[in-house]
Design goal:
Largest sheet: 7 strands, antiparallel
Distance between the termini: 32 Å
Number of strands: 7
CATH class of one domain: Mainly Beta
Structural class: alpha+beta
Strand content: 25-35%
C-alpha cells in the first residue's frame, strides 16, 4: 500500500503547470485549460457543470478552437475525473488561462530524496516487509510459521448485485 501511494506521489510530483507565454502550443503538448464561467456553462452539458480545469494533449488548434484529447477534469469542489482521451472542442473564449505541463527536475529530486529518506527510516525500524527478518528467535525454536491473510470472497449467487459479483469471479474447473 505504501509503495503504490508513494509511486503515485512521486509520479505526480515530477511535473508542474507553467503558463504558456504567447506562443501557439505544438500538437501533442500536454496542456491544462483553466475554464471560466462562460466555459462552465457552455461545456457543462458534455463535460459536467463544475469544471475548474481540463487537462489533455493538444490534438490541433483551428482558429479560436482547441481540439484536446482529454486525460482528466479537475472539479470546482475538489476531485479529479480521469478520462480516456476523448476529443473535445474548447473555444478560447471558455478559457481564462492555458498552462503547459512540464517536467520539473527540482520536484523530482525532492520527491526522490523524500522517498529515500522514508525507506531508510522504515528499514531502520524493521517495518519494510520485503526485507526478510534475520534476527534470532529468543525462544530458541527453529521453526518459523508465517501466515498470510486469505482474501475475502463472496459466494456467487444470482441475488448478489453485479458490482459485488465482480469481486468473486467464477472459477474454472
Amino acid at each position: 500500500m505504501i509503495t503504490v501511494s508513494g509511486f503515485g506521489l512521486l509520479a505526480s510530483s515530477c511535473y508542474s503547470l507553467q503558463p504558456t507565454l504567447g506562443s501557439a502550443p505544438v500538437p501533442g503538448t500536454r496542456l491544462a485549460f483553466a475554464i471560466n464561467d462562460v466555459g462552465r456553462i457552455a461545456l457543462g452539458g458534455s463535460m459536467g457543470p463544475e469544471l475548474l480545469r481540463v487537462e489533455g494533449n493538444l490534438q490541433s488548434k483551428d482558429g479560436d478552437d482547441y481540439f484536446v484529447n482529454v486525460r482528466g477534469v479537475e472539479l470546482l469542489q475538489g476531485g479529479f475525473q480521469t478520462w480516456a482521451g476523448e476529443t473535445v472542442r474548447i473555444n478560447s473564449s471558455y478559457v481564462s488561462a492555458v498552462y503547459e505541463k512540464k517536467f520539473s527536475k527540482v520536484k523530482t529530486v525532492g520527491a526522490l530524496a523524500a522517498a529515500a529518506g522514508l525507506v531508510s527510516v522504515l528499514v531502520a525500524k524493521g517495518k519494510v516487509p520485503f526485507i526478510p527478518d534475520t534476527r534470532d528467535d529468543p525462544s530458541g525454536d527453529t521453526i518459523v510459521t508465517r501466515r498470510s491473510p486469505r482474501p475475502f470472497l463472496l459466494p456467487a449467487r444470482p441475488g448478489i448485485p453485479p458490482f459485488l459479483r465482480s469481486l468473486n469471479p467464477p472459477r474454472s474447473h
